[in-house]
Amino acid sequence: MDTLGYLKTVLGNKKPRVAEIELTLFENCDVNCTFCAHEKSSVIGMKTEEMLSKIPLIENFLDEIDSDVEMVNLHLVGGELLQDRLIDGVDDFLARYELLISEYQRICERRQIEPRIILVSNMLTTKSDVVIKWLEKLNETVFVRLIASFDPFGRPLTKQYFLNLKIFRQFISNINVVVTKEAIRELKKGNEQFDRLYQEFPIFMDDFLPDVETSRMIPSDEEYLEYLELVVKKYPKLLPFGEAISKVLTQSPNEIQFTTFNKCNILPNNKVTNYLWERHPPESFVTEVNYQDNSNMLYRFIEENQCLSCEYYQSCPLRCPVSWSWKDRVRSKGCVNKRFFDSLAK
Ligand SMILES: C[S@@+](CC[C@H](N)C(=O)[O-])C[C@H]1O[C@@H](n2cnc3c(N)ncnc32)[C@H](O)[C@@H]1O
Ligand code: SF4
Ligand code: SF4
């Protein structure tokens, strides 16, 4: 049995029942967040034909997902898909996305999968009136939602951003925040904008995956522990650890929260990976890198931390095994999740 097969067996009901297609149409973006390594001026993937060429790749993935998968999410991302210059009436990118979405609906229908499309955006568009009408129209026939990205450090946040959160409220499924060293520092200081969003939206705190240039932004294990302590003290609703804490306290089962299984990342140049991009060099990781399958990273995480004999195993969401495998991270001895869960019991 290979590592992937072994993990599927060992993890049992900790294996998520959700499949995820991360479809990065292009990297082009008109802003520059400090933690994001996208090639902001690249135009690869922006033509209609290039977008439609993703459909056979998605079909291949759908035909291979595990039979126990109950839901498939298609994450449509850039770059920034809703940049003003792409919605100016000359280059009508909304029409291109719509064409792609209708093709996706067609291939889902054939497989009796309910299409769920989630578009990830920086929410800076000033063409909100056009975009909201487009979303309303699409939602008459298909489920399309937004993930709004927010970061307390390194991301431009304008008045329009906060206005858009109100305008698009009904379509925003959640806010996404990247847990960098700087974000932890800002949250520890106290961030009013974050506190307001916390009252209004579900917030998912995503593990940061650095690039060689942004390696210094990855939190050390001790900083990650400080972040977990902040979750329990101040933000107990934050996903995924807020939820995990209550599950640990009630000893309820929990799935792993960072997908290794049934996940594909389709890149602008039509390369298909499990998560990593070609720009992530193998020498940056403590394990061997297989761009199609990161189960060896999860395997090493579980072995090194001895998760299978840990008292918190059934409730613990574990950690993103890829981000955890980044070599240049300041590591502590032992598992910080465990130290954190131990402190809850005191
Ligand atoms: C690359 S962005 C593209 C979509 C859109 N432009 C936005 O900012 O939401 C997709 C998501 O990845 C997050 N992200 C960017 N760089 C990241 C990194 N190095 N590690 C983890 N997530 C990252 C962003 O914050 C955003 O939520
Ligand atoms: S808005 Fe999105 S794509 Fe653009 S730089 Fe920021 S994270 Fe990257
Ligand atoms: S607390 Fe640590 S050792 Fe225990 S299951 Fe979670 S990640 Fe593994």
Structure notes:
- 37% of the residues lie in helices and 13% in strands.
- It is of the alpha/beta class.
- The protein has one domain: Aldolase class I (TIM Barrel, Alpha-Beta Barrel), CATH 3.20.20.
- It has an eight-stranded mixed sheet, covered by helices on one side.
- Helix 3 (55-62) packs parallel to helix 4 (93-110), helix 7 (181-189) runs parallel beside helix 9 and helix 9 (221-234) runs parallel beside helix 13 (336-345).
- The structure holds S-adenosylmethionine (SAM) and iron/sulfur cluster (2 copies).
Number of helices: 13
**Category from helices, strands and their pairing:** alpha/beta
Largest sheet: 8 strands, mixed
The dominant shape is: globular
InterPro entries: Aldolase_TIM
Protein name: Radical SAM protein
Describe what is shown at a glance.
This is Radical SAM protein. The chain has 346 residues and is α/β, with parallel strands linked by helices.
Key features?
346 residues; alpha/beta; TIM Barrel; eight-stranded mixed β-sheet; 37% helix; 13% strand; binds S-adenosylmethionine; binds iron/sulfur cluster; Aldolase_TIM
Outline the fold blueprint.
Elements: H1 3-11, E1 18-24, H2 48-52, H3 55-62, E2 71-77, H4 93-110, E3 116-121, H5 128-138, E4 143-149, H6 159-167, E5 172-179, H7 181-189, H8 192-200, E6 203-207, H9 221-234, H10 241-250, E7 263-266, E8 272-273, H11 295-305, H12 321-324, H13 336-345
Parallel strand pairs: 1-2, 1-7, 2-3, 3-4, 4-5, 5-6
Antiparallel strand pairs: 7-8
Helix pairs in contact: 3-4, 7-9, 9-13
